[in-house]
Amino acid sequence: MPSVASVRQIQGNLVDLTALTVRDLLALLRTAEGRDAQFIRDLLVEAYPDVVGQYANAAGLLTADWYESLPGDPAFRATSAPVLLERLEGTARWAAGAIFTGGKLEEIVAGSAKRHVFNASRETVLDNVEREGAIWVRHASANACPFCRMLATRGAV
Fold it and tell me: How many whole angstroms separate alpha carbon 141 and alpha carbon 25?
């Protein structure tokens, strides 16, 4: 079982990665200020998978390294979960819809990018748990939502 310090370290690293992801995406959107909606949409659909994909891949690699540091079979080699470009492209198209509907594009882009980076980490853990034949337990923080608290009561998976 990972130590609390180990979990906090990986979480902090992932938060840092998401901050870099959002920084790069917002910088990209700033380059399109004053351009028409179609240009912004095309730019987002083209660039979002590259920008988010690089940070999601980094999250997967970071998580695989962290996973290998946990107690377990010393011969087991963790791998990062693949980042699916189709998912990122789909998210970019969905987020770009905010341009035409008056949604808060920057918030939508930032939130979806964070989700992809954290999902790359989660999927890496789940893939390696399955490959190794290990079990995992969800721990909810003290301020977790009721749904997350409920999931944490289910024990080992």
Answer: 29
